[in-house]
């Protein structure tokens, strides 16, 4: 309990130490002693004792501003902890892919929060297959959704709910040169990538390794202009015309604009799918069922995501 903040607020609100002491169920000498001890710690007076009712000094005004915020925050924490103790507020923790969360889960999260009362939703980023294994094994998440990371299928239930493949994202100004006279929609010749600056996604991301392996297999030497950008930075640099990059087909879903062109590449590894994963002994709560139901409905509404449900 933030007792100092509450006693200063009580003195300010009641105007005298005697009234404040009655409100706080303390004797007047006890409250006076607490106030003096606080002022000694701060090295300044908080109230002008010569005025009636007591008025805060400049230092007192600054402390009051803090006290109001501190007491309000403490009251919120007390209320939330009490609700959790009474099981009045439920919790749902979902593992997600940070690189895909913005475009693929924002609508789902919004719908869930607007239609579900008294439930705190937490999203936990997944870095790798091993990380997802640990999160599920340690019961740190209820389930994982729309993630390319796949846990051990012998230990967990894994369902592919959305397919994705790798595509070339390029500035529209480069589109005609890349197409090389082919009709729109035709897969690009990998050799066309040697003609443009290339932006590599984040180095730790598995996609970086897939791109290099695929290009080596196709005999293409990339002209890397930027290396190991974040996924957001990679897309933004493409949008601004600095070069091209290879990203999952779902990456820019919902934020496509006229400045970015997308191409399939002949012979490029197709990638995989995004999965829903959970423990075999998992018993989904009503909130978990609601979230998954909203996710499946959203996928059916957006065929551009190539849902498998």
From TrEMBL:
Residues 1-57 form the HTH lysR-type domain. InterPro entries: HTH-type_LysR_regulators (IPR050950), LysR_HTH_N (IPR000847), LysR_subst-bd (IPR005119), WH-like_DNA-bd_sf (IPR036388), WH_DNA-bd_sf (IPR036390). Keywords: DNA-binding, Transcription, Transcription regulation. The keyword Transcription applies. It comes from the Bacteria. GO terms for cellular component: cytosol. One of its GO terms (molecular function) is DNA binding. The keyword Mitochondrion does not apply. Belongs to the LysR transcriptional regulatory family. This is LysR family transcriptional regulator. It comes from Gordonibacter massiliensis. The lineage of its organism: Bacteria, Bacillati, Actinomycetota, Coriobacteriia, Eggerthellales.
